[in-house]
Amino acid sequence: MSLDHEAYMRRAIGLAKVQHGRTGKNPSVGCVIVGLDGKVLSEGATGDGGRPHAEQLALGGLKGKSAAGAIVYVTLEPCRERSTGEDACSKRLIDAGVAKVFVSVMDLHPQGAGGKGALETAGIAVETGLLGDEAAALYRDFFASLD
């Protein structure tokens, strides 16, 4: 079965757009978890005020299903570190056993950047830039605030 990667990423972008402007200082991120059969297992977007993160919500919404071997579509690179001390999204995805992560936009925040490397070190395939031009507008203000 061939998966429509752009359709799943567009869904993730749509989820992020709904929360855009509602996540405080944190960026609005969308995440879609898809099984190898092409069925969406779960999805999430950054919560009001910036927490929980999209990946955390999507993994929490699996309701007994496993993300092992799944493909994840996320609009912003999964964080490498959390300011709260909670597990980073990259670690959560590693622990869940996902097989591949598609990232639309790479994170420029010092705590967020590096999630891709953590995933790859754990043996998870990562592909970046999928619909990056469409998702970039979601992160312009966030990245500008880092200067």
Automatic annotation (TrEMBL):
Gene3D superfamilies (alphabetical): Cytidine Deaminase, domain 2
InterPro entries: CMP_dCMP_dom (IPR002125), Cytidine_deaminase-like (IPR016193)
Residue ranges of every copy of the CMP/dCMP-type deaminase domain listed in the record: 3-117
Pfam families assigned: dCMP_cyt_deam_1
Name the UniProt record assigns to this protein: CMP/dCMP-type deaminase domain-containing protein
Gene source species: Henriciella pelagia
